[in-house]
Amino acid sequence: MEKTLIELRHISKRYDLPNQGNVRILEDISISIKEGELISILGPSGSGKSTLLRIIAGLVSPSEGSVLYNGKQIVGTNPGVGMVFQSFALFPWLTVLENVKLGLDNRPLREDEKMRRALSAIDMIGLDGFEGAYPKELSGGMRQRVGIGRALVMEPDILLMDEPFSALDVLTAENLKRDLLELWIEKKIPTKSIIMVTHSIEEAVYMSDRAIILSRDPARVISDISIPMPHWRDKTEFQFTEFVDQIYSIMTKREVKPVNVPGEAKKKIEKFPEVPAGALTGFIELIDDLGNTVDLYKLADQFNLYLEDFLPIVETAQIFGFATIRQGDIDLTDIGHQFADASVLERKEIFKAQVQKYVPIIEKIVRILRSKSNNKMEREFFVEIFEKHFGTIEADHQLDILIDWGRYAELFAYDEEAKVLYLESETAPVLE
Ligand SMILES: Nc1ncnc2c1ncn2[C@@H]1O[C@H](COP(=O)(O)OP(=O)(O)OP(=O)(O)O)[C@@H](O)[C@H]1O
Fold this sequence. Notes:
Layout: E1 4-17, E2 21-34, E3 38-42, H1 49-57, E4 64-69, E5 72-73, E6 81-84, H2 96-101, H3 111-124, H4 140-152, E7 158-162, H5 170-185, E8 193-197, H6 201-207, E9 210-214, E10 221-226, H7 238-252, H8 277-289, E11 294-295, H9 296-302, H10 311-319, E12 323-326, E13 329-332, H11 334-341, H12 344-358, H13 360-371, E14 376-378, H14 379-390, H15 392-408, E15 413-415, E16 420-422
Parallel strand pairs: 3-8, 3-9, 6-7, 7-8
Antiparallel strand pairs: 1-2, 1-4, 4-5, 9-10, 11-13, 12-13, 14-16, 15-16
The structure holds adenosine-5'-triphosphate (ATP).
């Protein structure tokens, strides 16, 4: 049995957020990380992946629970980790060598030993000859190599990486992934475990031994999948696409939340993906054109998109009852096919029926408008309500999307200039 390096025990994290009060970001997360494991953490945007990584690093303290490193609870920063950030986080006024050496700043080492280690790390990450260069003279890929070098120079037991490739173009990212994986697989670095946050399912399956998938609001571990394929992995191989499909289907499965959570006084307003009706319509048409059972992974590939780019739209198609997902394949439902084949007017009717069935908040908006004698209501009124549930920025976004859906379904209208929602009806002329 491999030794446990990191143990997360019942980690929760809450933040006090303006207008929202004390919000739970992470809930009861328990994970054990063993020597020799390269782990990916996946989850929807804003779910709390970075927060979890920072808790492992000891940069953020959990509200409940504890982090153990080598069996001991950490207090303050975790001495066993080195961290790589998405934004590189280099000091522009320091050279490559100085930036890398910075990783050793707090180590009780002699200057010549620090220098030897820094040069060796620079060599390892393929920046030999660039020791004296400044960040601005380097490409994005080279800058991230410096970021990785600064973490590796500490010879950490655990390398934590927060979306390390997502700020790079595709080719540069592929290159860097291969180089890093080579250091890891061929044991050229003494690192015993790598934990990587990523938004790319393909990256996770390409690199890691285990993929941990988080939910959102709050983040819980919804799946912990082992990927026991030998390296180097071939993205076109059947098994590879099977794993991608499996993870994809877990991530697109809508979480069924209990309507009334005990102890939760206020009824929650459901949060919807920000996908306008036009985009949803186009997507349903596309799936219909492509015939039955479309493999989303192949579809993304065909359009040179990340699979994850489809997540919100696929989720919306499911919410409206237009599509079902199984093992990474999307199928239109009967109503989905009807919607795709309908005329513009029929489409609006179908959309309206689905909205009334699955987006009850829009019905509530209509009811409020109906209850007013002039059938109109300031946008601000709804923003106020939404802010209590989602916070200021998200409240605006959520209202925008509901307005888009409500207008498409012709359930109400919206005056952009006056910022007023109103009912359009011959009997109730509304805007003076
Ligand atoms: N210091 C903080 N104070 C208040 N809220 C915070 C803080 N840090 C993070 N949050 C909130 O916690 C939630 C999770 O953020 P986090 O960055 O961990 O998510 P993520 O999954 O890494 O997101 P992304 O995929 O977009 O990078 C967000 O709603 C964020 O606004």
